[in-house]
Specification:
This protein has 304 residues and is mainly alpha-helical. The protein has 14 helices and no strands. It folds into 2 domains: 122 residues, Farnesyl Diphosphate Synthase; 181 residues, Orthogonal Bundle (Farnesyl Diphosphate Synthase).
Length: 304
């Protein structure tokens, strides 16, 4: 892959991605502050790329999903051409191309991610969790494996699956928190089989009432997310010591969203589960003080 462009263009692109990350990914941005500066900018670049793609797909004030297919494909073609050396002045591309080149990131991860984003424009629901996992493989699992070479690991092969599992844990946390917001986009990420097993009809979700059946469904999904966090936890001590505080913070800060869902009695409609800035700061401090290589203590979403 050829990386073209002036050094000043690449630096400006990294700064642009940092600003995007700071504006839209506040929890994750806080965690990246704990990385060495030379790693931090590469994480900003990946965030900028994925966020820009997500904005094409998910803007609530944008055109209908069917009308976003063409812009997404144009973006995909533009990114692919840039990977192959075609000059492009998009503000995100110089940074992400540089990051891909520096760490020799696998292009298949980017293909998988873009494929899942296309699914969001045509798929409105998933029959089973296995079906949802096929989507999450690209939208979350691939991001985990993109990140791994940047974070570093003594045994990258052993850390690969925990990295994917952490992506799944974060994304399922978002799906649980954002049931109402996703309904606004015409999508339901909670599998139809799960709804049926708890006696929840799609109209029950659209009514946005936390009935006993809906609460039981959400509690089930919280437990499922906890299983992904448990699998992912073993991978964090495998990471390079300079990366562990960052990922510990992200692990606990995203997991705290599940704690808030539990605290609200599994009612994801009354208010959006959020984590206070002071709690995030405390989690970051605790992560900084943790000994590198120490195991993760405690899992999110524990029933109270």
């Amino acid at each position: 892959m050829n990386v073209r462009g002036k050094g000043s263009d690449v630096l400006a692109s990294y700064e642009f991605c940092r600003q995007v990350h700071r504006s839209y990914g506040r929890t994750y941005y806080l965690a990246t502050r704990l990385l060495p500066a030379w790693k931090r900018r590469h994480v900003h670049a990946l965030y900028g790329f994925t966020r820009y793609t997500d904005e094409i797909v998910d803007r609530l004030d944008g055109p209908r999903p069917v009308d976003r297919v063409a812009p997404l494909r144009v973006w995909r073609d533009r990114f692919t051409a840039a990977l192959d050396g075609v000059p492009d002045d998009h503000p995100i591309l110089p940074a992400v191309l540089h990051t891909i080149a520096v760490f020799r990131l696998d292009r298949r991860d980017f293909d998988a991610f873009l494929g899942s984003m296309e699914m969001d424009l045509t798929v409105t629901g998933y029959p089973t969790y296995e079906d949802l996992m096929k989507y999450m493989d690209g939208s979350a699992g691939a991001i985990g494996t993109m990140m791994l070479p940047i974070l570093g690991a003594v045994d990258e092969a052993a850390a690969r699956e925990p990295a994917r599992q952490l992506g799944f844990a974060f994304q399922l946390t978002n799906f649980i928190r954002d049931v109402a917001e996703d309904l606004d986009r015409g999508r339901t990420y909670l599998p139809a089989k799960d709804l049926a097993e708890f006696g929840v009809m799609p109209d029950d979700l659209r009514a946005r009432r936390a009935t006993p059946a809906v609460r039981d469904l959400i509690a089930f999904e919280v437990d499922r997310a906890r299983a992904h966090y448990a699998f992912a936890a073993a991978g964090i001590p495998m990471l390079a010591p300079s990366s562990q505080a960052c990922i510990r913070t992200a692990f606990h800060a995203y997991g705290a969203i599940l704690d808030e869902v539990v605290r609200h009695g599994y009612d994801v409609f009354r208010c959006r589960a959020t984590v206070s800035a002071s709690r995030k700061a405390g989690l970051a401090m605790r992560s900084l003080l943790a000994r590198p290589g120490a195991p993760i203590r405690g899992l999110p979403g524990e029933p109270r």
